[in-house]
């Protein structure tokens, strides 16, 4: 008994596994490694699929009708009319479901049949993934996927280390280190030892926590603790490690990847759910009508019908002895008869038509050339055909960051070295920096001229690309300073004014340290500024003076980040005069905008894909300019990158893409990191090898926000440091205020452009000081208590009094068009949430880059509490801030509504801001709260299109602002756990719903799904999730719409998605064009469909008043059967497929066109009731007018017209003509297909009626033929159609004239040939990055602590530490050169007056104070202003335009 309960007890409480013991593990019945995402098998498909389809209320309703029609006593229609359409719908849906499930089977088969090397009987065999079981020992090779969750036993690397990439789990592509137990390292790759390994593992049960694992290994009578650092999860990829072995702990559905994948949910659209509700209402309506007619029939039969049994005999089943009982039975039968006759109100053809429309709309998405990505030859793909119209009703978008918004490619973009910025390309003809936008043009083997091929498109849709050509386009930016190689600085303006500008430039104060002045080029800055208007000839008028208190460098550099002002210009470089490097305009015409990047081919270690366009930096390096050498030497030495040679090429393995970009930049400029050992670093500088002794690595962590290395070469000890700007600035020595001010201006500029910045600094140490510090550092490292605090104090001591070297600015490249797509989607009223596994700084930085976060925000709330109480306190504070903001809003916003159409939003902001600015350099003060009234903005927009009338009629820009534009929310993963708890989720939602954007950082895949589920449940909102990796699968499945990006992280997201696109920017077109069109078409189709069917069906109701409620049909039974199939199906299908109110271009230019879908305004209960009433009115007119004409009518020939068949034929004909007229009025976009189907259906009616009655011999033969020969028929049809069409025309033109919608106005503008652009389409190109108020947020470093310790301990090396011996001749080469480079460092200790820096401060005023610490207004001395005034001669005048930098310090 005990042996039976032990496994059960272990199964309930913990997992017990014994390595290489299959029989022992089988008793616990653990899951094998087989995965199954499909829903059906061959045997279960038919019953399960039918059961699922009949869960649809409509299908079940028509099945009941079919059963009723099989009873002859109550059916007046043949069952074929219902059976054929029902079978067609079920078959079509079944085929589609079978196809989708076959694709899932193929995907499962591909994964399950992957090969894995498994240890069986002491030998490695190739086994399928599906055959791997718990307890097996498997081998992984480099770049191989992990087959299951395994406990790491041994690796090829010393100390049991291995490196993995977890992109499939959390989206991060940086390497992570894992380390096995030291006791199992000895197993090595000896198969006998591994097969004899019989360790027993006790661990937690399967769960979805990616960052947590608790377990114990019992081996050789010893217990070893197991944690997450010793576990490799399924979905990870082994990197930079030759091989490793591990024992399977979780397999198949128990793996953490599958635990996070979520369940496949049945998805239906809001229109489907509304249709189900409407069908319930219609069924109840039909039941009441049938009951009313049944009562009427029973009364009529009891009072009148019993006397006409000779002419109208009762059926045999009806009792004739007792009249009341007979009449009751007849009434009961008539109830079911009317249920069959009136079922055409909701015919089965409705669902057939809906499926056909969705199916064809899916192909329109697949065929859209505008969503074709030529680089990967990928089209958009609708992987489902049931959700198209839901794309037009999205309220929330949940997006992954890495690989979805960004390319996950870091590039070295710009830098600042010794107060001089590099990376900007200056156009001397206009004096403006130009923004370089790289594009790749695909050329195919075609006779066309390559220049004629549009960028980003292919000449052939199926032919693979043959040539991939890099092309760089330049876009003009605002003017900026240009620094020559000789140290002179000029405003880059027209070529004719270059010399004059240089003559008027004034020198800045000399450096205070004379030692630093030696070897340093004198830099002079001019301070001209452009006026807001240029002269007619395009020349720039005379220079305007610099505003007081603003450094010229800050002014010009800030202005360089203003909005783009025009087209691109080709730029090249040439050297004119001795040592003078000028960037001049190339002699290219307007059509030639190609820009050549700097050629690094002279460097044998350069990377072919590295792009840099500023030649001056390479020239400075090659001319042995001191500061540039120090800058790149620091980048080549201060890092934790590992180097290896693969196939003769030097490759780097970096822990973060940031470090990889910086080390690669140094490599391309000639400072090549070659190798490292635990105690040395070797670099190659301009072809010469330099070897440094690595003394210490002061590792990076999220608190320090910096890392340092201490190196020795010869007799020189130097500390190199890189980190966040506010952290480094606090640790600089005094006497470099001028350099700090200029560098701070560059930092502001880089951060405003959305670049990720790091500040570099150095400190030269004496040998005696370092030895003393080293002793104290070792004591702190060995302390038993407060070790971390003591180490931090030691690190603080040596990381002080540093000399500022420069700033790096790298860009996590956004995918093309992301800022514009996000701006348009937000303008459409869609809220965007970013759910990412990245760190907070990275996510915020990307938020600014893609314009999800902007300076228009009143504040950015950061929730980072570690407990429920801390999170609740933060949420409560944020709630109060929102209340205060809503009560006292900043005024002056009328300018937003009445500004000139040519003024960009930045200019509007500056116009508002200038009201509050002082003429001096004193800090501006915020305006007081309004005393009487506040300009308020409605988030509900009472009149949806009311505000557009002024913008479209007057040509003015109309920026509509609602309450959600005020704030953004950033939530950390550990805080999100508390926010999603029941006690806080309401407060969290309350704040999040009032924010323009929400960013959740460090979230697990399951947390992503929980956030989506929360919004779905609490807000009842339509959600869309978009991602590109396996970590996004659960989120994609949870949302109403799942969109997968076929990116760098495999196809897991695509296989689980409803729609697949190649780039995020295509989401804009998918929603604003295809989604809006699909919703618009479906709503219009449903409104017209219900109208025509009620108009058709309710004619039987009016006729029942004249036929004794006998269920007699007014129409020919054949007409009833084919009315929806042949006579009216094609026109309404054309309406649902091709209809559009505005073009795709206008749909993108006017995002507010999307708003009706957000509120379900085009089809809802109100619109349905309107269609029903319209149809009822039509049916009443259709029946009464012909009935009144033909009741006692006599033709001119004396024939009696009042027969039932003639009346039915006339009413049917007028019904078809009215349907044709009504759908003509419904159609806004006419195509050849519309013409053929609408007019063809009218002709088809007469042809089919003639064929049926005369060829087949129908009962109504001759009825219509005789009727159309008489003028009475034509007059009756004309009068009836006019009565029906006139009210529709009158109402249509009333709306057009009095209450026009935005689409109506756009069509009117198109007819008038006036092409105006709505201001709601905010074009944010790459050159329009705005300066941010929170300049500190430019820092981001996707790094983690621990790599420095691994390096210095030797554990990360391919050799053991004892194998390394520091060479005796270290430091003998180039010792004097290094000494000279470091001799200029200033050792004078001075107090650092950089001010108090706050951390994550959410208060706007506090952040405002922080941003002024190193601003040019605060740091530039009066002597500097006097010197500048002496040079310019006009500094007393104040520029009438507020400089961009001042916007950073104004608190509105």
Written account of the structure:
The chain starts with a helix and ends in a 5-residue tail after the last helix. The chain is elongated, with a radius of gyration of 38 Å. The strands form ten sheets. A nine-stranded mixed beta sheet has the order 14-42-41-40-15-36-39-38-37, with helices on both faces. Helices cover 40% and strands 16% of the residues. A hairpin with a 2-residue loop joins β29 and β30. By secondary structure, it is of the alpha+beta class. The N terminus and C terminus are likely disordered.
The rough form would be described as elongated
What is the CA-based Rg, rounded? 38 Å
Main sheet characteristics: 9 strands, mixed
Total number of β-strand segments? 42
Secondary structure class reads alpha+beta
Low-confidence stretches: 1-11, 439-593, 891-964, 1314-1337, 1359-1452
Overall residue-averaged pLDDT value: 74
User: Approximately how much beta-strand content do the residues carry?
Assistant: 15-25%
List keywords for this structure.
single chain; alpha+beta; 9-stranded antiparallel β-sheet; disordered N terminus; 9-stranded mixed β-sheet; disordered C terminus; 40% helix; 42 strands; 1452 residues
């Amino acid at each position: 008994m005990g042996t039976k309960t032990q496994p059960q007890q272990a199964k309930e409480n913990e997992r017990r596994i014994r390595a290489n013991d299959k029989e022992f593990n089988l008793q616990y019945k653990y899951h094998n490694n087989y995965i199954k995402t499909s829903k059906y098998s061959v045997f279960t498909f038919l019953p399960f699929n039918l059961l699922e389809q009949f869960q649809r209320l409509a299908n079940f309703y028509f099945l009941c009708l079919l059963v009723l029609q099989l009873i002859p006593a109550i059916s007046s229609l043949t069952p074929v009319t219902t059976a054929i359409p029902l079978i067609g719908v079920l078959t079509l849906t079944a085929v589609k479901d079978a196809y989708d499930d076959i694709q899932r089977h193929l995907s499962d088969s591909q994964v399950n049949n992957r090969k894995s090397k498994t240890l069986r009987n002491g030998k490695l065999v190739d086994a399928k993934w599906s055959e791997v079981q718990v307890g097996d020992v498997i081998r992984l090779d480099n770049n191989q996927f992990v087959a299951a969750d395994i406990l790491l036993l041994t690796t090829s690397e010393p100390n049991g280390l291995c490196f993995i990439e977890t992109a499939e789990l959390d989206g991060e592509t940086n390497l992570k280190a894992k380390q096995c137990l030291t006791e199992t390292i000895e197993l090595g790759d000896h198969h006998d030892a591994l097969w004899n390994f019989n360790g027993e593992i006790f661990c937690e049960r399967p769960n979805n926590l990616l960052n947590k694992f608790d377990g114990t290994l019992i081996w050789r009578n010893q217990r070893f603790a197991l944690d997450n650092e010793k576990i490799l999860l399924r979905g990870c990829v082994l990197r930079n490690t030759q091989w490793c072995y591990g024992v399977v702990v979780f397999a198949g559905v128990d793996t953490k990847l599958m635990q996070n994948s979520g369940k496949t949910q049945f998805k239906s659209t809001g229109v489907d759910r509304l249709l189900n509700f409407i069908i319930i209402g219609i069924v109840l309506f039909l039941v009441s009508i049938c009951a009313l007619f049944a009562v009427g029939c029973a009364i009529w039969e009891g009072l009148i019908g019993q006397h006409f049994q000779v002419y109208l005999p009762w059926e045999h089943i009806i009792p004739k002895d007792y009249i009341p009982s007979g009449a009751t039975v007849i009434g009961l039968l008539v109830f079911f008869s009317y249920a069959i006759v009136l079922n055409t109100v909701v015919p089965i053809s409705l669902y057939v038509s809906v499926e056909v429309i969705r199916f064809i709309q899916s192909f329109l998405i697949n065929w859209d050339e505008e969503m074709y990505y030529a680089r990967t030859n990928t089209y958009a793909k609708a992987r489902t055909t049931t959700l198209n119209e839901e794309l037009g009703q999205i309220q929330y978008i949940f997006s992954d960051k890495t690989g979805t918004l960004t390319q996950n490619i870091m590039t070295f973009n710009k830098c600042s070295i010794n107060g001089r910025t590099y990376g900007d390309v200056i156009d001397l003809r206009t004096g403006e920096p130009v923004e370089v936008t790289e594009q790749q043009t695909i050329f195919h083997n075609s006779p066309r001229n390559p220049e004629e091929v549009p960028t980003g498109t292919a000449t052939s849709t199926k032919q693979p690309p043959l040539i991939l050509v890099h092309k760089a386009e330049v876009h003009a930016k605002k003017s900026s300073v240009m620094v020559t190689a000789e140290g002179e600085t000029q405003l880059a303006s027209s070529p004719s004014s270059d010399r004059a500008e240089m003559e008027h430039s004034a020198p800045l104060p000399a450096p205070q340290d004379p030692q630093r002045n030696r070897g340093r080029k004198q830099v002079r800055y001019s301070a001209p500024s452009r006026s807001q208007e240029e002269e007619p000839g395009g020349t720039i008028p005379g220079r305007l003076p610099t505003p007081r208190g603003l450094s010229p460098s800050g002014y010009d550099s800030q202005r360089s980040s203003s909005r783009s002002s025009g087209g691109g210009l080709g730029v090249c470089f040439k050297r004119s005069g001795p040592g003078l490097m000028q960037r001049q305009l190339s002699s290219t015409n307007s059509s030639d905008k190609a820009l050549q990047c700097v050629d690094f081919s002279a460097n044998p270690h350069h990377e072919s894909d590295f792009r840099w366009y500023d030649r001056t930096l390479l020239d400075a390096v090659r001319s042995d300019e001191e500061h540039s050498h120090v800058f790149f030497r620091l980048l080549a030495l201060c890092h934790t990158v590992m180097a290896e040679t693969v196939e003769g090429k030097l490759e780097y393995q970096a822990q973060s893409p940031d470090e990889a970009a910086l080390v690669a930049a140094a490599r391309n400029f000639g400072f090549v990191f070659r190798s490292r050992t635990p105690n040395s670093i070797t670099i190659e500088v301009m072809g010469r090898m330099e070897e440094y002794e690595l003394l210490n690595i002061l590792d990076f962590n999220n608190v320090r926000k910096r890392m340092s290395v201490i190196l020795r070469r010869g007799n020189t000890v130097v500390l190199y440091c890189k980190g966040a700007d506010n952290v480094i600035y606090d640790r600089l020595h005094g006497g470099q205020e001028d350099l700090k001010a200029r560098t701070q201006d560059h930092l502001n500029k880089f951060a405003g452009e959305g670049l990720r910045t790091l500040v570099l600094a150095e400190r030269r140490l004496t040998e005696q000081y370092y030895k003393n510090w080293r002793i104290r550092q070792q004591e702190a490292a060995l302390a038993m208590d407060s070790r971390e605090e003591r180490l931090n104090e030691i690190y603080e001591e040596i990381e002080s009094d540093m000399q500022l070297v420069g700033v790096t600015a790298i860009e996590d490249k956004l995918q093309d068009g992301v800022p514009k797509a996000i701006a348009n989607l937000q303008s459409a009223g869609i809220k965007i949430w970013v759910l990412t596994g990245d760190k907070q700084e990275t996510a915020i930085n990307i938020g600014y880059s893609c314009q999800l976060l902007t300076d228009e925000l009143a504040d950015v709330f950061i929730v980072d509490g570690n407990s429920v109480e801390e999170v609740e306190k933060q949420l409560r504070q944020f709630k109060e801030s929102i209340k205060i903001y809503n009560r006292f809003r900043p005024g002056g916003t009328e300018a937003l509504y009445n500004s000139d159409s040519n003024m960009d939003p930045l200019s509007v902001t500056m116009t508002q801001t200038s009201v509050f600015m002082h003429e001096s350099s004193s800090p501006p003060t915020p305006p007081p709260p309004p005393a009487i009234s506040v300009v308020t903005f409605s988030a509900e927009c009472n009149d949806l299109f009311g505000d557009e009338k002024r913008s479209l009629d007057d040509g003015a820009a109309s920026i509509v602002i609602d309450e959600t534009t005020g704030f953004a929310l950033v939530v950390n993963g550990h805080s999100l756990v508390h926010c999603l708890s029941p006690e806080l989720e309401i407060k969290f939602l309350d704040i999040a719903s009032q924010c323009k954007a929400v960013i959740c950082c460090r979230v697990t895949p399951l947390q992503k799904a929980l956030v989506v589920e929360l919004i779905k449940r609490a807000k009842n909102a339509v959600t869309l999730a978009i991602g590109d990796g396996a970590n996004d699968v659960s989120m994609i499945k949870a949302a109403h719409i799942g969109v997968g990006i076929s990116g760098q992280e495999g196809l897991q997201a695509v296989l689980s998605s409803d729609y697949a696109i190649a780039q995020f920017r295509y989401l804009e077109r998918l929603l604003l064009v295809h989604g809006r069109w699909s919703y618009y078409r479906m709503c219009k189709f449903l409104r017209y469909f219900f109208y025509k069917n009620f108009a058709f069906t309710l004619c039987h109701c009016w006729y029942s008043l004249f036929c004794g409620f006998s269920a007699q049909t007014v129409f020919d039974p054949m007409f009833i059967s084919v009315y929806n199939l042949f006579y009216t199906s094609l026109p309404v299908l054309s309406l649902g497929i091709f209809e559009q109110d505005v073009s795709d271009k206008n749909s993108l230019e006017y995002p507010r066109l999307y708003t009706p879908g957000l509120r379900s305004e085009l089809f809802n209960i109100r619109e349905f009731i309107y269609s029903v009433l319209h149809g009822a009115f039509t049916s009443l007119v259709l029946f009464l007018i012909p009935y009144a004409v033909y009741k006692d009518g006599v033709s001119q020939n004396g024939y009696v017209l009042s027969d039932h068949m003639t009346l039915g034929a006339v009413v049917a004909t007028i019904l078809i003509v009215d349907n044709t007229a009504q759908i003509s009025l419904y159609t806004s976009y006419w195509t050849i297909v519309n013409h053929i189907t609408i007019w063809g259906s009218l002709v088809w009616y007469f042809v089919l009626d003639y064929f049926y009655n005369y060829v087949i011999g129908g009962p109504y033969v001759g009825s219509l033929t005789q009727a159309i020969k008489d003028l009475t028929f034509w007059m009756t049809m004309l009068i009836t159609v006019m009565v029906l069409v006139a009210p529709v025309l009158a109402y249509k033109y009333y709306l057009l004239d009095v209450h026009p919608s935005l689409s109506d106005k756009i069509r009117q503008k198109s007819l008038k040939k006036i092409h105006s652009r709505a201001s709601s389409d905010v074009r944010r190109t790459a050159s329009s990055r705005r300066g941010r108020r929170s300049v500190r947020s430019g820092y981001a470093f996707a790094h983690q602590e621990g790599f420095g310790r691994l390096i210095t301990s030797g554990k990360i090396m391919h050799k053991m530490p004892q194998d390394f011996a520091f060479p005796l001749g270290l430091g003998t080469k180039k010792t004097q050169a290094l000494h000279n480079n470091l001799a200029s460092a200033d050792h004078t200790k001075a107090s650092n007056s950089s001010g108090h820096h706050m951390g994550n401060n959410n208060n706007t005023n506090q952040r405002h104070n922080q941003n002024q610490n190193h601003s040019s207004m605060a740091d530039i001395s009066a002597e500097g202003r006097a010197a500048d005034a002496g040079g310019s001669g006009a500094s007393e005048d104040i520029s009438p335009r507020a400089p961009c930098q001042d916007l950073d310090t104004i608190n509105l």
